[in-house]
Every structure is written in structure tokens, then in C-alpha cells.
């Protein structure tokens, strides 16, 4: 789950991640806000680049990886499939391979490069759309679209 060093920290103080406890009944408890939360809430924290760590309430084991994987499974099942079957087959094929240890770093680096490029394209498009004689109208339309959908033109942290 590591991203760039500019990752927002939780409110736990001193830049510590928010600690989420997962109980045997599968409920998730945010120790920062003292509230029970959902996987959807954790997905939103991830989109906002907020650091968190999920621990098993009984054993204290770090289960963040498992929970993030569950979020991906839920997102994929929700109809917005982002991982093609061919990619998944290739990924599964790399387990146990001599190159397995190199895959996480490669995927993380590739994702960081993709996100940088995505932000550059968004900036170029925004500049192109909002400049010129119809720039003010375009800006108003973008703001209305963003307000209506709950999503920003520049999806910060995505």
C-alpha cells in the first residue's frame, strides 16, 4: 500500500497511521474516531491517501494486506472491473516463480508512474478546456459536474 512520501497521516498523532481493529465478528473499529466503520469507508480513506493499519483485535497481527485485498475483491465484484482476466492469470503464474520477489516493487513503481502521468494529462486537459474564449463557461460546467457527482475534476489522491 506504500505510495509516495507525501501520504497523509492519520489523526493518531505524530504522523502515525489510524489504527483499525478487526474483530472476530468481522466488524471494523476506527480507534481514532471511536466508531465502527465499513470496508467502503476504508476504501475512501485509501482514495484520500490517509494512512491506516488494520490489526486483528485478538492477536494484534497486522492484517492490512488482507483487508486491502478484500476491498479490491469487492470493487471488482461491483461491476467496475479494472483487473483483466489475462493480467490476473499472469499474476497468479508469478507466485512461486524465481522473479516473485521483484513483482511487488515493479507493480508499485508502475502504479506510481501511471498516477503521475494521469495527473499530467488531467492538468493538460483542464488547461486546454478552461483557456480561451469559453474558459469561464467550461470552468463553471466542470464545477457543477464535480459538485453534482461528488467527484473532483482533479481527483486528488487517486
Describe this structure in words.
The protein has 158 residues and is α+β, with helices and mostly antiparallel strands. The chain folds into 2 domains: 1-105, no CATH class; 112-147. It has 5 helices and 4 strands, in the order E-E-E-H-E-H-H-H-H. The chain has helices spanning 39-47, 64-77, 85-94, 103-130, 135-149, and strands spanning 18-22, 28-30, 35-37, 52-56. Strands 3-2-1-4 form a 4-stranded mixed sheet. The radius of gyration is 19 Å and the shape is extended. 6% of the residues are buried. Residues 1-6 and 154-158 have low confidence and may be disordered.
Helices, strands, pairings?
Layout: E1 18-22, E2 28-30, E3 35-37, H1 39-47, E4 52-56, H2 64-77, H3 85-94, H4 103-130, H5 135-149
Parallel strand pairs: 1-4
Antiparallel strand pairs: 1-2, 2-3
In short:
This protein is α+β, with helices and mostly antiparallel strands and 158 residues long. It has helices at residues 39-47, 64-77, 85-94, 103-130, 135-149; strands spanning 18-22, 28-30, 35-37, 52-56.
Question: Low-confidence runs (pLDDT<50, min 5 residues)?
Answer: 1-6, 154-158
Query: What's the structural domain tally?
Result: 2
Describe the sheet with the most strands.
4 strands, mixed
Structural class: alpha+beta
Question: In percent, how much strand structure appears in the residues?
Answer: 5-15%
Termini gap: 13 Å
Number of strands: 4
Secondary-structure element sequence?
EEEHEHHHH
Strand neighbour order, sheet with most strands: 3-2-1-4
Helix content: 40-55%
Roughly how many Å is the radius of gyration?
19 Å
Describe the global form: extended
Query: Average pLDDT value?
Result: 84
Count of helical regions = 5
Amino acid at each position: 500500500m506504500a505510495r509516495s512520501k507525501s501520504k497523509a497521516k492519520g489523526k493518531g498523532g505524530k504522523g502515525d497511521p489510524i489504527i483499525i481493529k478487526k474483530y472476530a465478528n468481522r466488524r471494523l473499529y476506527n480507534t481514532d474516531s471511536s466508531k465502527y466503520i465499513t470496508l467502503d469507508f476504508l476504501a475512501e480513506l485509501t482514495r484520500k491517501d490517509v494512512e491506516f493499519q488494520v490489526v486483528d483485535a485478538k492477536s494484534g497481527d497486522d492484517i492490512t494486506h488482507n483487508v486491502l485485498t478484500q476491498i479490491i475483491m469487492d470493487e471488482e465484484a461491483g461491476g467496475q472491473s479494472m483487473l483483466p482476466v489475462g493480467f490476473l492469470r499472469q499474476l497468479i503464474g508469478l507466485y512461486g516463480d524465481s522473479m516473485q520477489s521483484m513483482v511487488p516493487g515493479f507493480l508499485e513503481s508502475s502504479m506510481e508512474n501511471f498516477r503521475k502521468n494521469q495527473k499530467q494529462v488531467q492538468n493538460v486537459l483542464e488547461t486546454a478546456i478552461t483557456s480561451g474564449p469559453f474558459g469561464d463557461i467550461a470552468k463553471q460546467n466542470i464545477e457543477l459536474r464535480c459538485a453534482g457527482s461528488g467527484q473532483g475534476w482533479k481527483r486528488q489522491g487517486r
